[in-house]
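Q: I'm teaching a short session on how sequence maps to structure, and I want students to see two examples side by side rather than one. Could you give me a first protein with its sequence written out and its structure tokens following it? Keep the formatting plain so it prints cleanly on a handout.
A: Of course. Example one:
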Amino acid sequence: MTLIKETDYGTPQSTSEKNVTINVDGFDVTVPEGTSVMRASMEAGIQVPKLCATDMVDAFGSCRLCLVEIEGRRGTPASCTTLVEEGMQVRTQTDRLKGLRRGVMELYISDHPLDCLTCAANGDCELQDMAGAVGLRDVRYEADGQNHFKMRDGGGEVNACWKPKDESNPYFTYDPAKCIVCSRCVRACEEVQGTFALTITGRGFDSRVTAGMSESFLDSECVSCGACVQACPTGTLQEKSVIDIGQPERSVVTTCAYCGVGCSFKAEMRGDELVRMVPYKDGKANRGHSCVKGRFAYGYAAHQDRILNPMVRDSIDQPWREVSWDEALSFAATKMKGIQKQYGKEAVGVITSSRCTNEETYLVQKLTRAVFENNNTDTCARVCHSPTGYGLGQTFGTSAGTQDFDSVEHSDVVMVIGANPTDGHPVFGSRLKKRLRQGAKLIVIDPRRTDLVKSPHIKASHHLALRPGTNVAIVTALAHVIVTEGLFDESFIQERCEWDEFQDYVEFVSDPANSPEAVELLTGVPAEEVRGAARLYARGGNGAIYYGLGVTEHSQGSTTVIGIANLAMLTGNIGKKGVGVNPLRGQNNVQGSCDMGSFPHELPGYRHVKNADVRDIYEKQWGVTISDEPGLRIPNMLDAAVEGTFKGLYVQGEDILQSDPDTKHVAAGLAAMECVIVHDLFLNETANYAHVFLPGSTFLEKDGTFTNAERRINRVRKVMAPRNGYADWEVTQLLANAMGANWTYTHPSQIMEEIAATTPSFANVTYDLLEEKGSVQWPCNEAKPEGTPTMHLDGFVRGKGRFIRTDYVATDERTGPRFPLLLTTGRILSQYNVGAQTRRTDNVVWHEEDLLEIHPHDAELRGIKDGDWIKLMSRSGETSLRANVTDRVSTGVVYTTFHHPTTQANVVTTDYSDWATNCPEYKVTAVQVSLSNGQTDWQEEYQEHAARSRRIEAAE
């Protein structure tokens, strides 16, 4: 294996369809119109020296190193800012150019420390490379004069131009002494990330890169995405891991295991030690960008809390006992067999992981259907995007988003509903912000004022700050305006949708009761604001909708998804670039876990278990009989456990005690089981009630695939050997075989072959194809052998699009005198889901505890000040945390995250759920807030129980 070095073409690729031919140093090269001379030269295999240019940002033309000569033109123009013209004759190497470049390089080197042998960037420094490329052999200028890199001048006085290294950021350093002020970091922060945290202060010799208002990187607006570090051509911005370990020697392309964007990274290694994660430019989901989690928060893989040996115990009040793999698997198999013998086949089940690979998830659902012989399988998608599966399945015929992420570059109007992409899906958020800066319009529907509502160079045209729980009313009101004002696309509807159902929908949605004016008191959104948003979406050109858990995690989550699909069909915003309905999936393989048959009523490919022809495929493949009765969902499993009929559970890579609603009910269900098998990296909260712990492997230690939010199937490649001894798919196979199966997989590619052979949407997917194409989007089959970037091009999967009425039904969770506020929950940029991974990294610098956002008016009424301990109470339970007084939330609404188990925010959420899918209603909980003097009794008792449950017997 070698270090993968990607070509830097100097300037971005032109998207023009018209070609131009020029001659560079005697070689003809044909490139799209709008291409720079620098890039055209690189396309011809001729590298022009450069420092300020890189293909991740627009040309700048400041370094004057990329000069060329062009026949018929005076002077020596910069090749990065000069565009090609038909017939252009370019010279890149003449005596004149060589002399000019050496002179420029001399000036750079004269104000740069010559400590190359001890610099962390040695071997990966473009300044070093360019000095060699231009043939620099001597520097005529003395460094004793004014400079930026010596702490003291020749007389021993402090050098006013010198600045100390900024090491405040936990992941990288900034050394001003090595900065050549090329501005690449500043432009990356602006153009790629869109945070505008960096700037060039001063003029001339006094110019320097500055974070924020002359702050440290940690105190500034910097979000630590790493774009500046990646762009830096010197050792000015350098990963601390490279400083500590040294330059990497090999790299492996793999896929990030955090959110549903599915970024591709180069895992750069030295021996078996991970040096850094570098975003892969050829990654089709991220296009070379990253966020703080994927770029830097991988340290959990080697954290001291990680469990590497199997453990068992007979009772949850006992300490854990480390055992061999054989003993642990035998213990688990004996327990599960005994339960089924005593209580029946239906008394056990599985929960698949949205963090594990497609292949691993497939095996877990196969375990319950082929070995346990029931359909008791569910996944974390139950508590996040199960309404997406139902709503889009009913309207479009398939349970996934319609576009790829590149599509947003063609959008004219973007509607973001119940999602916070800059925090939850940051790389897509950056791409969206770039499109907005280019002129696209934005509509935000969210109870909170998220960063998209207003941030540098971005402002939403409409922010519909609705009351939590009124999504259906708002979406239907938008449709009311579109229908009653004649803004719908009749030709699209007649051609592509069921006309009779459309007529019925028109009758329903035209009712004055669904008008913005009628629902204003209900939603709290001014009617004119709703009408303006509807007109913009319907008239503004290509309209795209992106939504998140703020849509699905409601009692009417499925209804809202249907309403969103109705909006897209009404306006013809389906089946082309720049439009569509796009769920932003929360975890790296939520889409894949659903695709693989993790739901109790569906086999892989979203095919119902009642269909005999589908069951027959798997019965022949597996040599078993599959039940035609849907199994238990997670809430049903817990209810049945409390009732005494469900006794055994295998949980792979999920922490339902922290992530699922009504924590006390989850705990009661787990405590009532006789065998809980937790298969994970750490002793998570669910493991407090486990009898068997099977150590898991990280994404760095396995082969497989993830499927992201755009249906993109990406390869996951093993970077290092599993520290626990086995990849997760191997552990599941060992458990199945201990139960009596005879599985013989030797590599995940064989599992994918079985998936492709049995699942129509994956029929053409092979590891060879993924190696060739990098990634593909399902459906990938005989009709679409290379995948499907945009769905429903010529017709819907179900044939005709189906309009469905969206009656608003208020949630049973109501505010009142005892609980006058509405709690809604979400995520923050630096943390991920239940925090099991990110809490074990330096990301805790930004978010070391969950906070409760409360409006200043509501805080003042209760005597609450910023930072005060407060008690958060609901009908289900209570917890304490600190207050964050802010006007990001409206009066009457409070907000918190759920990343820290010490808070256990879900102890206050209720068991109300979506009418169609049982997705919990996390986003609407009636609460009261009052001052507190610290943690509640329940929190203290919980932490004491957790500590007892994590005891491990000392090895003999």
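Q: Perfect. Now a second example for contrast.
A: Example two:
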Amino acid sequence: MSSAKTLVISYVGMETQEVAVKPHLKVVMNSDTKHLDEVIVTGYGVTKKAAFTGAAQVVNSEALTKRTDANFMKSLEGSVAGLQVSSFTGQPGAFSSTTIRGKGSVNSGTEPLFVVDGIAIYTDKMGGYSDAGRGDMASSPLANMNPNDIENITVLKDATATAIYGARAANGVIVITTKKGSTGKARFNFNAKAGTSFVGYLDNNYRTTNLEKYKAIWAEGVVNAGYAENLTEGSEMVNEYVNSWYGVDLTGNVPSVDWLNEILGNGLTQEYDLSVQGGNDKLRYYISGSYFQNEGVMIGTGMKRYSGRFSLDGNSGRIGYGLSANAALSNINNSMTESQYTNPIVAVYDLRPFQQVYNEDGTYNLDASYNPIALNDKDKGDKKNQKQITAVINPYFTYKFMDGLTWKTNTGLSIIDLEEFFYNSIYNPQYSGSGMLGQKNLERATTLSITNTLNFNHSFNDVHNLNVLVGQEAQKVSFRSIYAAASGYPSDAVFELDNASTPSSAGSMTKASTLSSFFINGEYNFNNKYYGSASFRYDGSSRFGDNNKWAPFWSVGAKYRISQEAFMENTQDWLTDLTVRGSYGTVGNQDIGYYAAKGLFNYGYSYNSKPGAIPYQIANPDLKWETVAKADIGINAVLFERFTVELDYYNQRTKDMIFEVPLSYTTGYSDILQNIGEMENQGFEFLINAAVINNKDFSWNINLTGTANRNKIIKLATDKPIEGTTTIRKVGEPYYSFYMPEYVGVDPETGSPLWYKGTEGSETTSNINEAGQRIVGSADPKFYGGIGMNFRYKDFDFSFDASYTLGNKVYNSGFAYDMQVGHYFLGPVSNYIFENRWQKPGDVTKVPKFVAQDKSGANASSSRFLMNGSYLRMKSMVLGYTIPRNLLSQIGIDRLRVYVSADNLFTITAKDYIGFDPQTRANGVQSWAYPVPTTIMFGLNLGF
């Protein structure tokens, strides 16, 4: 139009420009680098993704807050290529295990290093019953962190990204950046959501039968065992046994009890968060407070968390300074998660449908052993309470000597206090005769660190760009615990141990370690086309032998931006960016225990009626770090300004793995820790982001991740494999290999179970003792990842995120009872067994004949209880509506969004999977796990 005064010029791959209309114009367009300006936070510093030669992925705050879970790490499942988050329980606030690019050690730690605002934090399991096999009620320090306070999370994977952390980076690094203040007037943000949690799907195959089916199958089992001539006699015999043992006449009107329904229900979930941020050029602040509540879906469980955070950042001339502090208190009512009878799930699979919850007079039926309703009575039942307090203080100071040269001192103090109280009530048959049992456990983990760095960042002649960081770091980690127990409570009115008459045990423990480090990191690029980087770190740790306390770690990396070459000009209309990169280096693993290299004694023993000590551990002055050599080759591409693709091939080999090497008993010791083994992880991963449609009224974005990782043992402590009942550690095989008799099915003529005979071949046998152990699969998935989509239409938004795993095996060790075919006489029976059991010659099934007091070996450990663990889970789904701003501005509101969300809406499993949820520990073993709940929430985001 002739009246136009401004001309807007745009082109794919170039920055849009506005210029004044003139008769003659010459416009030079610049490449649009918005995809390259993403910031990578390494903990010690910040660099643009364009200059970063390593492998890393950034997850923003929006992705973290889509889900409603106390542990924000679960939000990363499927969102980050190469990262696995393993949760074996739906208990609120429970610990989740995290691995990056596979398991890299046998006896040392496998969790990544967590760094918050430059300070490494303590994230180990805490609790008196935190180990697998002892209930695994581990408390997670990460569950005390409010995800609304997190700005973003950066997952560092390869050597270039992690070698700067040296001895702590073997398993990758997760860098958490918290929200800071901003310039301008005070801005308030209020987030509120409330809803309900429930078990969305209960596999009918895994549920126990009702009373009618129970009586029918046990009558059949008695006949099959030869104890009765027909089903009528069988029913009579079953009734006689039940009446004699349990005092119940099955010929009467006996209600059928669904014990699973009794212990499960809906739980209130709510979260409220208020924050304010603001400031000016000299001083900026951020303050927040939050309340979170998650009532468990299983009786007697739940969590409340109160948290607050304060951040202050300022500058005066060349000086910069800041202070951040956060504190949180969580109160958790927990449950055993494994084979203990106090786990309500275990009790369910040991209670018969004729056993009632209450007696006729309304009191609890304590003849129903470990009655979970009685045990979890709010006033007089068992108690499993955990109170966790975390406090973190992080002051820093910077001094700018000149443009491009800055000194920074960063310090941190983290304290985690855990107080646990466990009480076994009069309703608990294990302790009712001793007047109940009380246990108190106190733990404190303290981390103190200081980091000093000098950073030089300068460009020469606009083409040479140099960024050099040198630094020093020191850290001390200490841990202490105090435990006491007593029994003989005269009353359940007050639960302090002083009120018990018989002290039963007491103890305390203290341990500490120190780390001292010096490091240097350099990055150079020429004309934003050729990039190179190198790092070196020298670590000294108190955890290792006197001869190997210090060790070097290093990395080199390079990147080539091909799209900047002149010969690529013809591709600029569709290829915005194309780079290839590679890196190689070493990192270490110091997570071996605090005193693994020391000679230790156990005290508290009596020798000739005198206090004494015994040798406990032999010293090894040569014990050193496990070292991981990491190699990575990657390609990054941006197509049509809409599609971002990242592809990586990696190889990670762990050397000098620590093993317990057997010793002659004449030494007085059974073994010694030595650096012997090797393990390898290699694989391929991809990340694809696609802005399929992006216009004024409608947008559609897709995110895809995928990882194929192959784990392999290269070397063990001896030439012989390490064999277990169901597992094997063997050179050339994955660490998590299942090794057991291979189940074939059922003999169609006799109903007897069949296994493959011996360790190879296809001959079958019905004698479990003739069935040799074979490698029958691995807990490692062959492929895993996620898919997410985000839609926006005007003021409406909709998004979903799903995760998947393919090709992994899951072994349920509890199925020896849950899937019994008669060996547990008069025990509960699953619907799967009832519906699929062999009944007559010619039946083709996987379930053997049901025989009372069965001795066929069908309940023995074998691949009968091994299942395909593949699944597709709808992690989260959100539908929101943002109120138009013109309707809100008159009342001083900047933004108002209302939404409804659903977490764990559904999970699609393999056809042969039976259970609540296929996700479990990294080793693939599960039993009587707390069901993962579905959560429906209604919420609002308010900004003013």
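Q: What should students look for in example two?
A: Point them to this: The two ends are 40 Å apart (CA to CA). Also worth mentioning: Residues 8-16, 28-35 have pLDDT under 50 and may be disordered.
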